[in-house]
Write a structure and sequence with these properties.
The chain is of the alpha+beta class. The chain is built from four helices and 14 strands. The protein is globular, with a radius of gyration of 18 Å.
């Protein structure tokens, strides 16, 4: 289950940080090939807007298509972010992070796993770590613009340079408000994950307790402390 939501967290992280810079020319040659500066400029605008928020809540759904097993899985949930802190609430698990510890609660197992928050550990959903690896792991390219339901969407591919699991992430960004509406992750196995963001709620009131697992609220839960 954890692997199923990593693409969403990764895409979100790429959207929330100042991970791009604008250059005067349209394209720039690097050791990884030509970088599309138009795509970078769009991503920078998205990043600038999102970074202006004191907090952000997103409601989303994820569809995972397994081509090998001819099976699809759909998940839904929401995530609240505030700096390094976040609370991921899905129908199969909840993940709390207060910037020093991470609680991964699995309701069906009545178990919560506790991990130490480490800036360089992507497996613990560290958004800052993912941001730091953007430039060496991905190459952005503006594919096209298309209109859906009267809204113009800018489609950008993030080609994976080093990742062994998936080869690209495709972003659908609404042009007039710079909101990411959809994210698609394409795996080398032929599988595909599609995350659709259905609601943006910037600057929502957030308490510190939002990012901490309250053991008292879940009587009988087994705590597995892996710190």
């Amino acid at each position: 289950m954890k692997k199923a939501i990593i693409p969403f967290i990764l895409c979100l992280a790429l959207s929330l940080g100042a991970f791009v810079s604008v250059h005067s020319q349209n394209n720039k040659q690097t050791d990884k090939g030509v970088v599309d500066q138009k795509a970078q400029a769009i991503l920078q605008s998205v990043s600038k807007k999102l970074k202006s928020y004191t907090s952000l809540k997103l409601t989303f759904s994820i569809l995972t298509e397994n081509s090998a097993e001819n099976k699809n899985e759909k998940l839904s949930g929401s995530i609240i972010l505030q700096g390094e802190k976040y609370f991921l609430d899905m129908n199969t698990q909840k993940v709390y992070c207060n910037g020093s510890a991470i609680w991964n609660y699995l309701p069906e197992e009545k178990e919560v796993q506790v991990h130490k928050f480490e800036k360089n550990a992507t497996e613990t959903f560290n958004l800052n770590s993912l941001l730091a690896t953007y430039e060496k792991n991905f190459r952005p390219k503006l594919i096209k613009e298309e209109t859906k339901a009267g809204k113009v969407l800018q489609i950008i591919d993030l080609a994976s340079v080093q990742n062994k699991d998936f080869y690209k992430i495709r972003l659908y960004i609404q042009k007039d408000n710079l909101e990411i509406k959809q994210m698609e992750s394409y795996y080398k196995t032929g599988n595909k994950s599609t995350c659709t963001i259905t609601k943006y709620e910037p600057n929502v009131p957030v308490k510190e307790s939002t990012f901490v697992f309250d053991e008292k609220a879940y009587p009988g839960v087994e705590v597995v402390d892996m710190r």
